[in-house]
Amino acid sequence: MLPAYLPNPVAALSGGGTPVDLGRKMGDGKRILGDGKTYRGLCIGILAGLIIGLVEMHCSAAYQLTWLPAQTAASVIALSVGALLGDMAKSFFKRRLGKERGENWFLADQYDLVAGSLVLLLIISPAWFFANITPVIFIAILVLTPILHRLANIIGYSIGVKDVPW
Ligand code: CTP
Ligand code: MG
After folding, report:
1. Interval 73-96: pLDDT, tens
2. Is residue 110 part of a domain?
3. Is 6 contained in some domain?
4. 69 pLDDT band (50/70/90 cuts)?
5. Which ligand approaches the C-alpha of residue 11 most closely?
6. Rounded distance between C-alpha atoms, residue 5 and residue 100, angstroms
7. Which of 48, 49, 72, 50 is nearest to 60 (CA)?
8. Is 153 in the pocket of ligand 1 (CB under 6 A)?
9. In the beta sheet, which residues pair with residue 50?
10. Rounded-to-integer distance, Cα 65 and Cα 52, Å
């Protein structure tokens, strides 16, 4: 899941500039996605996920690290792109519910990247999905994700990258 976990914190560190929705609003008068989703965060975040995935591919092949899942180009792309697509989909629905940028939305904020990455994985590479995302792994992902999310946001808040610790 590293290629899915890395894009969000990297986007938070590198984001800024032109928003993905270009400042446009929907019929409800709210922004399509909001200022929290920028092209820079999206591109650098995905790039970080792709790089860590390539490192994983290299390591499992070169050093025969059997405990590392054998990432493929498809799995790496699905996990990293899917993570931030899920994040943007969440922001879209968050705005429709009238929630401001950065406002807390329990469960959606935690699991957006899991939903996005695993759904894209299922579409792009179903064989890899069923070989690697076993029921035990899936439960581990569900348990670990909110913990990692909380930790990352506390760190982000304390170093001044995030305005709120969630
Ligand atoms: N970020 C970005 N581009 C993205 C995703 C994130 O620039 N595609 C940056 C933004 O600076 C954002 C920060 O990462 O403020 C934290 O991301 P997130 O918590 O997902 O955004 P929020 O600001 O909380 O906005 P939202 O309410 O829409 O989730
Ligand atoms: Mg947020």
Report:
1. 999 999 999 999 999 999 999 999
2. yes
3. yes
4. confident
5. 1
6. 24
7. 72
8. no
9. none
10. 15
Q: What six digits make up the tokens of 53?
A: 């995935």
The protein residue whose alpha carbon is closest to atom 14 in ligand 1 is 12
Range of the domain at 64: 2-158
> What single-letter amino acid sits at 8?
N
Q: Scanning the structure block, which residue is given the tokens 């990293």?
A: 80
pTM of the full predicted structure? 0.95
Mean pLDDT of the chain: 95
pLDDT of residue 166: 78
What is the distance between the alpha carbons of residues 95 and 101, in angstroms, rounded to a whole number? 8
Number of domains the chain is built from: 1
**Confidence check: pLDDT of 126 > 90:** yes
High-pLDDT (> 70) share of the chain, % = 100
Protein residue whose Cα sits closest to atom 18 of ligand 1: 36
Q: Assess whether the C-beta atom of 10 lies below 6 angstroms from ligand 1.
A: no
| Residue 55 located in a structural domain | yes
CB of 91 within 6 A of ligand 1: the answer is: yes
Is residue 41 in contact with ligand 1, taking CB distance under 6 Å?
A: yes
166 within domain boundaries: no
Nearest CA to ligand 1 atom 17: 12
